Amino acid sequence: MVTSSKSQDGVPNGPISRQQRAQSLGVSLDAVELCDESDLIDLHLDTFIPVRLYGYDPNSRHRSRFLGGRFMGHLDLPRAVDGGLSGAMWSITTNPFPTAESRWAIFKDNLDHFQRFVANSNGGITFVRNVAEYRAAQSNGSHGCFLSIQGGNSLEAAPNGPLSVPDDLLLRVTLVHLTPSAFGGTSCPIEKARRSHGLTPAGARFVEQLNEGKVFVDLAHIHEDAFWDAVDVHDSSQPLLVTHTGVDGVSPSWRNLNDRQIKAVAETNGTIGIIFHQGFLKRPKGPTGVEMVVEHIQHVIDVVGDDFVSIGSDYDGMITPPRGLRSAEQYPCLVQAMLDRHWTPERIQKILGTNFLRTLAQLRPTDTSNP
């Protein structure tokens, strides 16, 4: 297999063989081949943030690394293809400060912008809503885009809640983000000034609406009190997600899950995406590179097994990934770190994508789905 893509100035870069990719990344050919031959699905991309902020074009290859791979500029479609990324949850992140009505209007504008971006990809990226559509995109050589919202308060004033998003495009909503909202409390330290950290009655109803619409409830960023409130009201027949997080068992943090929370997600047959932000991954005297991510994956495996863990990089979400993961073509470096632990290809493929596809098939069964 070879890949090719256009540079920032639109000039084709030519084909890149697997061997060339392995050499350029300093990994084995096995790592590159495993990426290419697997369902590699990232549960959280924030690349639409730089698109909105300064007109970043994800359809063109960006040779420079913005601030050395810190904060933003991690991913574009050509680099994602080079990294073997076959699908991802692309997020529209909510600005919490406008009024509820304005947030809904802004979301509609952003969705229109996002749809134009997909249309301008010339088939390089396709909206997908279930396993069958993902497989169809894959067979056409297209990256599968699962539309997501980070900060469910963008839908607070939507006339029909999550069902207001047209064409059933919406697959996932992160209930809260970095600020408290009408739906409940955030895990962000700013929340400590509030008396209540739980899910509000509006938040409980919102979870029920997401369940009714077969939209994933994502419990990343949520305060632990609201986490448990959401678990209580959530339809237990549907899998829960935590799309981008670390784990307290390796590195205690306000953004990380404890073992009890990990078990609660696994009990719904859900999955947990491990974030790439080193601020939530590092531990004293621990590794400083790609192995930081693998330690957190290992902890989830130790607690609940290898069926309930995935990757959720948070690329372009103002994060600083470990060295070796600061650009989207470097997904094989993560696979190499797993191979170095002598993990089987089957386990690695679960983490890369099949665990998530299992949850998707459970949430939205299709006659032809085959995760």
What keyword list fits this structure?
11 strands, six-stranded parallel beta sheet, TIM Barrel, three-stranded parallel beta sheet, alpha/beta, 371 residues, 13 helices
Question: What's the layout of helices and strands?
Answer:
Layout: E1 2-3, E2 16-17, H1 18-25, H2 29-37, E3 41-45, H3 48-54, H4 77-82, E4 87-93, H5 100-119, E5 125-127, H6 131-139, E6 143-150, E7 170-174, H7 201-212, E8 216-218, H8 224-233, E9 241-245, H9 259-267, E10 271-274, H10 278-281, H11 291-304, E11 309-311, H12 331-340, H13 345-363
Parallel strand pairs: 3-4, 4-6, 5-6, 6-7, 7-8, 9-10, 10-11
Antiparallel strand pairs: 1-2
Task: Explain what you see.
The chain has 371 residues and is α/β, with parallel strands linked by helices. The chain is 37% helix and 13% strand. The chain has 13 helices and eleven strands. Helix 1 crosses helix 2 (29-37) and helix 2 (29-37) crosses helix 12.
